[in-house]
Specification:
Layout: H1 2-25, E1 33-35, E2 38-40, E3 48-59, E4 64-77, E5 83-93, E6 98-110, E7 113-126, E8 129-142, E9 144-146, E10 149-160, E11 163-175
Antiparallel strand pairs: 1-2, 3-4, 3-11, 4-5, 5-6, 6-7, 7-8, 8-10, 9-10, 10-11
């Protein structure tokens, strides 16, 4: 278990470093201009967004592979809506029943790429009873816009007292 935790910590540190470096690399002001009918540099910044993601969730601590989903509401902040804040709910559909409610902080890095951090409360329900604990989620997604809707790949790392889980899947959302 120590070996797995050590690798997970390295992956998490690498993800944070990549997000930080990418944010700095693309920190120049986005502009929306047209060259022969196509746009460059357009940031996918939604004023309000509701999204759901679903995917495969390996649970290393339980040596299990299952399915999970999460639902978010994000309110864009500021003039460009590059930053966002909202609420989230996650469920991992396994025998132990994992439910997390969180506050979501989102940063739109470049075009359709965003990174979110979501601290929250995890509720575990199993045959021994209920338990609550602090949990954190780091998520990255890339959105392809289809009018008011968007779809794209999503990756997430969840950090809890008893371990770590991952989710790789698909993100679906709408803006309003």
């Amino acid at each position: 278990m120590f070996f797995k935790l050590h690798i997970i910590q390295k992956l998490f540190a690498t993800l944070c470093l990549v997000a930080f470096l990418s944010a700095n690399a693309f920190a120049q002001e986005d502009h929306d201009h047209d060259h022969e009918g196509h746009q460059h540099g357009r940031l996918h910044a939604h004023e309000n967004e509701i999204s759901i993601a679903t995917g495969v969730v390996p649970l290393p601590a339980e040596d299990e592979l299952t399915v999970g989903f999460h639902l978010h509401y994000i309110k864009g902040l500021g003039k460009t809506n590059r930053f966002g804040m909202g609420i989230g709910f996650e469920s991992i559909l396994d025998e132990h029943k994992h439910y997390t409610a969180s506050v979501v902080f989102q940063y739109r890095i470049y075009k359709g790429w965003s990174v979110s951090y979501a601290p929250g409360v995890l509720l575990l329900i199993d045959e021994h009873g209920n338990e609550t604990q602090f949990a954190q989620h780091i998520e990255t997604t890339y959105e392809f816009e289809l009018g008011k809707f968007h779809i794209g790949p999503v990756g997430e790392v969840g950090i809890e007292q008893y371990g770590v889980h991952y989710m790789l899947g698909v993100h679906f959302g709408t803006e309003f």
